[in-house]
């Protein structure tokens, strides 16, 4: 990476500066590829790659047939353990409320079942292939799809409870588990940054090549027993994660 | 993103499959751009973009003038709070030992000082611009540059101690602070995924456009007092982060 930057990177850096400084404001339509190419003295293919970079960085979005627009977005602050503290969900609140506060949010929830994968089965202490309940959610904040989340729970803990309804009731799944004597005591979260799979990119409207996601795999424990596996896919540019922990 | 994948993405996916299946093994030289173009029936510019995707994913690396090679790498598991537990550094171990175990590792350490930025000053409770000690490290694991890390500490805590030496002694900086009655009690870490700055890309040998880093900002506390700010830049493809925490 020593030496000269490639031309598309130089063009991307200059446009990025205009966006971050506010000269190109939120919602502004960018000049056309041909205009950018002329303005910076590069080929249209170079201008195309420059916009690919900005899309990957989440600074602009393409509206098919209508051009490319500046899209800034204040990162969602996702604070652990606060968001998963018992006095939060125990008080009836939704975990995502802790993250987004009053920001406009929409959630699609789909309840289903699936045979447990080897990973899910091992975590939950059941045989691979055993049907487990799935709660799949897609979160949209201020019009931007930001997260996919699928929980996997043993059927014996969900059957006949509101966990099998899209609206699991006050405090959600964790409050329902607590009512069965399985109040959660601790969690582990594993975070990996990677490229999205095609279906993830599609569901999160990640238009550009080079977009990245954070995959978070959470295991939720009631004492020694893991009672839920949750696999989340977050638009990397939409979040910051914070963790507090003792020495 | 609905519908057909772009051609470069399709080519990248097929090459990725060959790498992940081991058909293209670690260290193998990839076919030339022209050969890839011919093989997949696409333009050379499409083959170029496909390799950009694989480089961004950390699956291949370019050796200037010598072609592109398969480079796989087992992610480093960075486990909190275990790596920062008092019984770890208190026992004389280096924190990074917890992450990499016996894997071959090299570290460059540079000691310096710098005026405290607004962020560092506020965290440490000092005036912006006050000189603070900086310990800047660059970690290389199995020949791959994986992390940059800079600690900022108030000079009053470091003056005349081994914290001002590149080798801070057994247990490192945290053991030296404990000897002054400032044993660390807790930490916060803030994680953001983003594109690298040019100097970060250069220091981490991130060759391709689209590479991503995880920026981790840690505040280390002795009771109520923040005594260290540590800003880390991790090659996103080289790490997985895990956190354990109570409900």
From TrEMBL, chains A, B:
The UniProt record lists the keyword Transcription regulation: yes
Source organism superkingdom: Bacteria
Listed InterPro entries: Bact_HTH_transcr_reg (IPR050679), Chorismate_lyase_/UTRA_dom_sf (IPR028978), Tscrpt_reg_HTH_GntR (IPR000524), UTRA (IPR011663), WH-like_DNA-bd_sf (IPR036388), WH_DNA-bd_sf (IPR036390)
Record domain HTH gntR-type: where: 5-73
Gene3D superfamilies registered for this protein in UniProt: Chorismate lyase-like, Winged helix-like DNA-binding domain superfamily/Winged helix DNA-binding domain
GO biological process: negative regulation of DNA-templated transcription
An example molecular function term from Gene Ontology annotations: DNA binding
Xref: Pfam families: GntR, UTRA
Keywords carried by this UniProt record: DNA-binding, Transcription, Transcription regulation
UniProt keyword Disulfide bond present: no
PANTHER family xrefs: GNTR-FAMILY TRANSCRIPTIONAL REGULATOR (PTHR44846:SF17), MANNOSYL-D-GLYCERATE TRANSPORT/METABOLISM SYSTEM REPRESSOR MNGR-RELATED (PTHR44846)
Descriptive protein name: GntR family transcriptional regulator
Organism: Catellatospora methionotrophica
